[in-house]
Prior knowledge:
It is built from 14 helices and 17 strands. It is an alpha/beta fold. The chain has two domains: 4-59 and 355-406, Urease, subunit C, domain 1; 61-345, Metal-dependent hydrolases (TIM Barrel). Strands 1, 2, 3, 4, 5, 14, 15, 16 and 17 form a nine-stranded mixed sheet that branches. Strand 15 (390-395) and strand 16 (398-402) form a beta hairpin. The chain is globular, with a radius of gyration of 21 Å. The termini are far apart. 48% of the residues are buried. The structure holds zinc ion. Residues 65, 67, 209, 245, 297 line the site of zinc ion.
Amino acid sequence: MLPTLYKDSTYIDHYGNLKTGHIAIQDDLIQSVYPIEIDPLKDHRFETVVPSSSYLIMPGLMNCHTHIPMVLFRGLGDDLPLSEWLHTKIFPLEDKLYNEAVYFSSLLGIAELLHNGCTFFSDMYFFVEEIAKACSVAGIRANLSLGLMDPKGDSGLHQSVELYHQLKEAGNQKISFFMGPHAPYTCSPDYLEKVVMTAEKLDTGIHIHLNETESEVENIQAEYHCRPIELIKQVGLFKRPVVAAHCVFTSEQEQMILRDHTVLVVHNPSSNCKLASGIAPVNQYLKMGIRMAIGTDGAASNNQLNLFKEIHLASLLSKVSEKEATFFPHKLFYPLLCQNPASFFFPHQTYGIQPGGRADLIFIRKDYSHLFPQENLLSHLMYSAQGNEVEHVMIDGKWIMKDKQILTFDEKAIQTEFTKIYRDIAKC
Ligand SMILES: [Zn+2]
């Protein structure tokens, strides 16, 4: 089949600059990008030509720390600190989960991601085969991991190995798998060593919560006489690529460890604010050249899965916390939500809107009043957009959402099933 041409579009190029031009997509890849002054129809043939002047086209956003099925617990246990929230609300509810509950909750969460322009998420949870099933139905890209905790013993490690092979055999190229030790305060150093050995055997990465609250850092220090990131360095965790969620309280020494290894630090400002954990030192991370991305965390502690809102908050917090308006400028939207995570999760792929780039794209309508004047669209993405301006979503060159309608599953039917499950689990 000949390529499809998206004509007269505004787009963000692979350097993060705003451009106008024509984008040709063939199968799952961007075939060519033509400058606006060239008419590709003169010398080339296309299957279809789609007038696209109403859109800002850019790579899909990447949500790098989620617990997707936790949409089921949205609004339950609000306004509590982390430890109380986990122990009195979340853990007892999680004991009641079952396959179908996780499957339908995952699809509901994925619907929210898609409506807000997200084409990839990096997740840690349980019932991973159900989350993977939901991803396959939806057609979304994901990195999944099974949450592991020490008291559950080696069964989680064995299960992770099985899941890794199962997902590989299922052949869905859009799903990858990492090991998911929950945190240094729920996994002992001995246990983490086994996690590293397993990750090495599978040649895969590790997703972990690090230094989320002050008290967890103090507890680790009291027990092991070093800080959590120093501890996990000693057990060899950084031999593998690491997704490090939170990193709110880090020492200079720990920051240098993060900088010197293959690490993606994931900043989750809403969750850190809502659980009153604190504000991560993101200016310091950026200054040091630590690779950073943004996550929403689960919907129980946010309570949204919207990266537009998340990065907006990240920028404002960064400025006000250090009373410095130049910090966290709008030009960070593209690197933090697109480029940095792509370079971490897909280091060997051509990325972005350029020939050979994967056609994981979102189409943002730019004729909303709050996006005028239209010259400043890069600034509007950070400071004015809400997320609901995303009209179409394409993954691997296929339409997943068109005119805000999800095409791969029946969103209304999922909402109905989800509500039944919610009543079953949360109300009894
Ligand atoms: Zn988390």
